[in-house]
Amino acid sequence: MAFVTRQFVRSMSSSSGAAASAKKILVKHVTVIGGGLMGAGIAQVIKTPMTSQKTFESLLDFSRALGKHPVACKDTPGFIVNRLLVPYLMEAVRLCERGEASKEDIDMAMKLGAGYPMGPFELLDYVGLDTTKFILDGWHEMDSKNPLFQPCPSLNKLVAEKKFGKKSGEGFYKYK
């Protein structure tokens, strides 16, 4: 797990007229607490109904000042990336569970056919099967009727066996 604190003394401004007339927010300290893939890659500000426009625009400006490319999304489970990614990953697992293709063939098809750097099973092992299960279980609890959020037997089995992917040495593939 990484803990990083940096002091930034930057005045944020925005190109919009409404934000330009508002008092600027000065961001003095930023603390990032994260471990691994997600902690290193979060650049989302991906706004709740309680967030002021001034705060939101200041966060966008601050993200840009750090060299990030922020995207905006309403407060929804998974925001943009995980909301699209997790159902894709789970459909790959279900395709294999139904015996329609092997995990190796699914990974190869997505790498060669879609140009992805990793197939879905490789990515699941990289992200962590326990992490993926945690996300899926949370979404299923919120919306149990959504077919995209249904539990996945082979994922549940691997996690119960403590096979979490690369971090444990075995998941859908072995890494020792």
UniProtKB/TrEMBL annotation:
<keyword id="KW-0560">Oxidoreductase</keyword>
<dbReference type="InterPro" id="IPR006108">
    <property type="entry name" value="3HC_DH_C"/>
</dbReference>
<dbReference type="InterPro" id="IPR013328">
    <property type="entry name" value="6PGD_dom2"/>
</dbReference>
<keyword id="KW-0443">Lipid metabolism</keyword>
<dbReference type="GO" id="GO:0005739">
    <property type="term" value="C:mitochondrion"/>
</dbReference>
<keyword id="KW-0276">Fatty acid metabolism</keyword>
<feature type="domain" description="3-hydroxyacyl-CoA dehydrogenase C-terminal">
    <location>
        <begin position="78"/>
        <end position="175"/>
    </location>
</feature>
<dbReference type="InterPro" id="IPR006180">
    <property type="entry name" value="3-OHacyl-CoA_DH_CS"/>
</dbReference>
<dbReference type="InterPro" id="IPR052242">
    <property type="entry name" value="Mito_3-hydroxyacyl-CoA_DH"/>
</dbReference>
<keyword id="KW-0520">NAD</keyword>
<comment type="similarity">
    <text>Belongs to the 3-hydroxyacyl-CoA dehydrogenase family.</text>
</comment>
<comment type="pathway">
    <text>Lipid metabolism.</text>
</comment>
<protein>
    <recommendedName>
        <fullName>3-hydroxyacyl-CoA dehydrogenase</fullName>
        <ecNumber>1.1.1.35</ecNumber>
    </recommendedName>
</protein>
<dbReference type="GO" id="GO:0003857">
    <property type="term" value="F:(3S)-3-hydroxyacyl-CoA dehydrogenase (NAD+) activity"/>
</dbReference>
<dbReference type="InterPro" id="IPR008927">
    <property type="entry name" value="6-PGluconate_DH-like_C_sf"/>
</dbReference>
<dbReference type="GO" id="GO:0006635">
    <property type="term" value="P:fatty acid beta-oxidation"/>
</dbReference>
<dbReference type="Pfam" id="PF00725">
    <property type="entry name" value="3HCDH"/>
</dbReference>
